[in-house]
From TrEMBL:
One of its GO terms (molecular function) is ATP binding. One of its GO terms (biological process) is carbohydrate metabolic process. InterPro entries: ATPase_NBD, Hexokinase_N. Residues 24-71 form the Hexokinase N-terminal domain. SUPFAM superfamilies: Actin-like ATPase domain. It comes from the Eukaryota. It comes from Lactuca virosa. Pfam families: Hexokinase_1. This is Hexokinase N-terminal domain-containing protein.
């Protein structure tokens, strides 16, 4: 090993990196959710899902599909050099 490499590896990280790592560690600890709480959420979701699937479902359907003859009206335009936004109102006439 060269003396330059050993000198580089023995240096401590800059203070700003140390502070960031400490703040992230503190945030991770403060934001962590105990396993028991996560388990309760999973169990409650499973109960609700099974209850929803146990009841009779409503039959739903789409009675009209777009056919290419739809029209649209331009209601507002706003543009800059980078972006151009258009608000369209669709008139679906089948």
């Amino acid at each position: 090993m060269s003396s330059n490499h050993s000198a580089t590896s023995s240096r401590s990280p800059p203070h700003s990196i140390t502070v960031v790592v400490r703040v992230l560690d503190e945030f991770e600890e403060a934001a962590s959710t105990p396993f028991g709480s996560l388990r309760q959420v999973v169990d409650a979701m499973a109960v609700e899902m099974h209850a929803g699937l146990a009841s009779e479902m409503l039959l739903t359907f789409v009675d009209n599909l777009p056919n290419g003859y739809e029209t649209r009206d331009i209601k507002a335009k706003h543009g800059t050099y980078e972006t151009y936004n258009i608000l369209l109102e669709w008139n679906l006439e089948f």
